[in-house]
Amino acid sequence: YMDIVKLRNSLNVRVGGLLPPNPVCSFAHFGFDEYLMEAIRRSEYEKPTPIQAQAVPAALSGRDVLGIAKTGSGKTAAYLWPAIEGEGPIALIVVPTRELAIQVYQEAKRFCRVYNINVICAYGGGSKYEQSNELQNEGAELVVCTPGRIIDLVKIEATNFLRTTFLVFDEADRMFDMGFEAQVKSISDHVRSDRQCLMFSATFKQKVERLARDALVDPVRIVQGEVG
Ligand code: ADP
Ligand code: MG
């Protein structure tokens, strides 16, 4: 037990919530399959970042997660890896902007290459027709999207929130800054209620707290480093 306390201190991680899983100090301890391990090796990452060290075991154990850590701390992989290891059928990753959607999509492709997991990117400004076709024809397994566009695509039945078993809200603080509160709430309310849900943010905000209360069930709450 003291070792876990020491490890959390050295990672500068504070953890709340009921019985939070232990953090790990190396990729080998995640228990990922060999394909994902190979993709990580190719990235030449030396070890998990502190937020990954604590959030990945929590997510792999099936828990909902609220993760707060500053920009550049490796939050994307902290939810992509558990999403990739999950059963599906659909992992839905909601991000505030088109630029971020493309960036997360590219990182997902990098880790999914060896699996043939179908990754789809759906953002406002892109062709709704093309995105709809991709969703329907290719059997999306990992969908990176902006809030308004995924709601539109569900409305035209290009995809279905009831098939989403793994839901991520990334950059929750920015999502609210950009006025996506109603859309985010609507997504949270319509995705099947027994989904696993992860939320990440670079800052604490009252609205982030409120969404966490509404969207997450018994979350593991992780704060890494100094955050605003
Ligand atoms: P955040 O979402 O917290 O702002 P990102 O997920 O964008 O951070 O990651 C920031 C950078 O760190 C990216 O270039 C990413 O490839 C890199 N990175 C992620 N995980 C690791 C790791 N375990 N070791 C080294 N670099 C990493
Ligand atoms: Mg990020």
Please give the domain count.
1
Q: SSE string, helix = H, strand = E?
A: HEHHEHEHEHEHEHHEHE
Total DSSP helices:
10
State the fourth-level CATH superfamily. Answer: P-loop containing nucleotide triphosphate hydrolases
- Give, in spatial order, the strands making up the sheet with the most strands: 1-8-2-7-6-3-5-4
Look up the CATH topology. Rossmann fold
Low-confidence stretches: none
- Helicity, as a percent range: 40-55%
Shape: globular
What bound compounds does this protein have? adenosine-5'-diphosphate, magnesium ion
Instruction: Give the biggest beta sheet.
Output: 8 strands, mixed
Walk me through the structure.
- By secondary structure, the chain is an alpha/beta fold.
- The chain is built from ten helices and eight strands.
- It has helices spanning 2-11, 34-43, 50-60, 75-85, 98-112, 128-137, 147-155, 172-177, 181-190, 206-215; strands spanning 13-16, 65-69, 90-94, 119-122, 142-145, 164-169, 196-201, 220-224.
- Strand 4 (119-122), helix 6 (128-137) and strand 5 form a beta-alpha-beta unit.
- Helix 3 packs parallel to helix 4 (75-85) and helix 9 packs parallel to helix 10 (206-215).
- The structure holds adenosine-5'-diphosphate and magnesium ion (MG).
- The site of adenosine-5'-diphosphate (ADP) has 12 residues, from helix 4.
